[in-house]
Structure formats: C-alpha cells, structure tokens
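Service request form, structural biology core

Requester: graduate student, group of Dr. S.
Request type: structure prediction, single chain
Budget code: on file
Notes: please return the result as structure tokens.

Sequence provided:
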Amino acid sequence: MSVETNEILSSYGTTVFEVMSRLAIENEAVNLGQGFPDEDGPEDIRQIAAEGLVSGPNQYPPMMGHPDLRQAVAEHNLRFYGLEINWQKEVLVTSGATEALADCCLALLNPGDEVILIEPLYDCYLPLVERAGATPIPIRITPPEWKLDRDALEAAFSDKTKFILLNSPMNPAGKVFNENDLSFIASLVIKHDCIALCDEVYEHIFFEKHQHKPLMTFEGMRDRCIRIGSAGKSFSLTGWKVGYITAPEMLLATITKSHQFLTFTTPPNLQIAVAAGLRKDVSYFNDLAIEMQQKRDYLKAGLEKLGFSVIECEGTYFLTVDISSMSSGMNDVDFCKDMTVNGGVAAVPVSAFYKNDAPDHFIRCCFCKKYDVLEEALRRLARYLNKHEDQVIEAAKAHERS
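Core staff response, request fulfilled:
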C-alpha cells in the first residue's frame, strides 16, 4: 500500500539524540548525549505525587490545568521576577515544554508568517514552525564566543515576523542572554509589533555572575511575551513531562484552543506535586544551580586535562567542547560515533543544532549526571586518547566540591 505522508515531518530523520542514544546502548557507552539527570528530583515532591496517585482523584483535571498548579505558577512568577499574573486567565499547564511550544506554533502561526530562530537551536523548533505553515528565519551565534550579531538579528525582522523564539538559558550553547542583548531584542519586538516566544526551561540553572531575567519583565514586553517553564528541568523530573505557559490573556486564549486538541490535560497527581515544588524555599533553587555548577566544573576540568578546549558555560546542563585538536581530522558527527564505539562515551555533535553550514568541530556533553558516571566517562576517554587516567580524575576532583 502506498501512503502519502506529510512532506515536512517525513523529511526529518530520527533525532540525533535518539541516534546517539541507540549507539550508546549498542556499545554499552556512558551516555553524555541526552540531556537528563540520572538522579530523580526531591523525594518530598515524588511522595506527594505517589500519595496523589493512590488517593485520587485520577480523572481528567481541568483542561487549563489543576488550579493549585496554576496558582503556584503565578506565585512563582511574582516571587522570582516580580510579575503579577492572573492565574485564571494567564497560566496554562501542558504535558511538557515541547507540547507548550507546539501549542503556541499551531495556535499562532499561519502560512506566510515568519519566525526568527537563533541557532544552534533545540531540534523541535524547526519542524514545529514549518508544520504550522510558517517560514523559519534563522540567525546564528557561533562558538566559542556565542556573540549575538545585532545587525543580523535586526535584518531578520520584517512586517511578516510573527514572533522570535528565544531560548535562554540556551541549549546547547549554555548561553544566558545578558540584559543588553535582551533589551535590544525587546526593542525590535516592539518596533515590529510582534511577540516573543520564550523557552525558559533552564530558568533556575545559571552560574556565577549570570542571572536569568525573563524578557517579559522588560518595559513594553508584558503583553508581548509567552513564557514557557518546565518542572522536568527545575526539579530533575524530566519523565513527568509537566510544563507551563505564562502569557497575556488574549494570546493564552488562542493557545488554549490548540492545547485542548493535543494532550487536553496532564496527570493530576503530577500537577499537585509540581505545585508544591514551585513553592519550595528559594534555597532549593539556589542549591540546584550550585550542584549543577559543581558538576560542570568537574567535567570541564577533566576534559581540559585530556586536552580538549571547553567553551564557557553560563547555564543549562551542557558543555560545548572544541574537538579540533583531538579529532584527527574527523568532523563532529564522525568523532561522536567513533568516541561512542571505540571510546565508550557518547556525546552529541553541535552541527545537529544548525539547519545548514554548521560549524563541524564542536560536541555537546551533558554534565547533569552522578559523579561516578562522570568519572567513568573521563576514565574511558583517557584510555581512548592514551592519557593518564589518574591525572585526569585528580584534576576533575579538585573541582568536585570547591
């Protein structure tokens, strides 16, 4: 039987994350490719979810989301960012941030619209924009500086621009857009009378002097921004797939119509547990960032001792690693495959996060893993590169609890 499939989605192959994860499984490799922690989040949150599952109810919660979680999202916006949000009209719960992105694209985009995307970009952005009928307009930041080209960004805006999709802290770059860049982006959004779709799932994972400031907090942007958050990232519970959208009433009303025809709702026990998580003391969120920074420093020190050049990471779960001096002429895709098969460690080629003409000598390594997993990865890489294992681990451990 011959079946004609959608030409946009069928043009995409299996995601690079799935390809590298399969290769890691086949070769029993340490997987530093996929971006999820290998330790579950806070036990008290998980206990609330477990008790909610047993005690019920386990029927459909409200389509917009459980009232307690929607109120908690509004409280969280006020507590951390000073944003006063009407939880009844401006908050929507989704089954993960990816569903939130899909809701927004399907609800807001029409053929002929343009969407500005900043490469390197999370892999679902392009297919979602294109399937909604809009035209992606990519600009790029490039390692090692990850500098925003303001001229290129300004030139990307037009009277067809529906929105800019901004990811900060940014996967895979590990970049936290600073206040000057955000002010410039806000000025262009206002000038061209469009909106900003802000993927802020790593909002609590930023390091050192860097701070996450939502674009929604900038002057003139309160009613032009859609803000997406993720319990998976904030509480190391990625398998729960609980996301939330904060948006002005006019935009959220339309986004909700898309949501009702996709997942419709999200498990009630998980929503109640996430509400409790969002109300945790600020110390929890500070400790999360500190823990991730320590793991970043541990892996970074080990990789540098091995001879890699590691680019500054300001936030997220990811290090970008320059392999040009270590790859024997292989590009990033071939190096990742060889490192997985012959070195027993999987990473992701950064070129996969660009549409065309990508830099081809950078890989992404995920550091949100147990220390013994990171240590095993460094030991395997030392053997793969004929380096002294103990010296590499000693260098890494110097940063483990510093």
